[in-house]
Amino acid sequence: MSGVITAYAAVAYTAYSIYAGQKAGKQQDQQLQMQRQAADEQRAAMAAEEKLQEQALNKSNATKASAAMDRSRSQQAGKQAGSTLLTGAGGDPIEKMGRKTLLGG
After folding, report:
1. What is the pLDDT along the chain (105 residues), one digit of tens a residue?
2. Where are the domains of the chain?
3. Helix (H, G, I), strand (E, B) or coil at 63
4. SS3 assignment, position 87
5. How far apart are CA 83 and CA 91, in angstroms?
6. What does each C-alpha distance from 31 to 21, 25, 27, 45, 61 come to in angstroms?
7. Is residue 55 within 8 Å of 64, Cβ to Cβ?
8. pLDDT at position 16, please?
9. What is the pTM assigned to this prediction?
């Protein structure tokens, strides 16, 4: 009879071990899923923060057209010596540069 009780005890212990292992596996899977979800949320938050920072940088670097800026650009353009096909550097006519045609002939 003692052998039968030992066999029942062994079967009960084995069954409990299988049950406990499955339960622990489910808990581990749940914890892993929670970690994945937390990591995904953190990535999304970081992406949103990066986008906000980029927008702030773009906003701070943006230039607004103003009358003062236009005047400054036109004043700077007036100080530079320019040339065209009809004039040489500094606006001198081609005839003063010793050429008779636009091609230098």
Report:
1. 778 888 888 888 899 899 898 999 999 999 999 999 999 999 999 999 999 999 998 888 776 666 666 667 666 665 555 555 555 555 555 555 565 555 655
2. 1-62, 65-105
3. coil
4. strand
5. 6
6. 15, 10, 6, 21, 45
7. no
8. 87
9. 0.42
Q: Could you give the 3-state DSSP secondary structure of residue 93?
A: strand
Distance (Å) of CA 72 to CA 53, 69, 75, 79: 31, 5, 5, 11
> Please, are residues 24 and 32 in contact by the beta-carbon 8 Å criterion?
no
Q: How many residues does the chain have?
A: 105
Q: 85 with 103: CB under 8 angstroms?
A: no
Q: For residue 60, give both structure tokens.
A: 């701070």
Distances in Å between the Cα of 82 and the Cα atoms of 75, 77, 79, 89, 100 are: 14, 9, 9, 6, 20
| Residue 100: predicted pLDDT | 59
Q: And the tokens for 89?
A: 């550097």
With left for phi above 0 and alpha for psi between -120 and 50, is residue 80 left, alpha or beta? beta
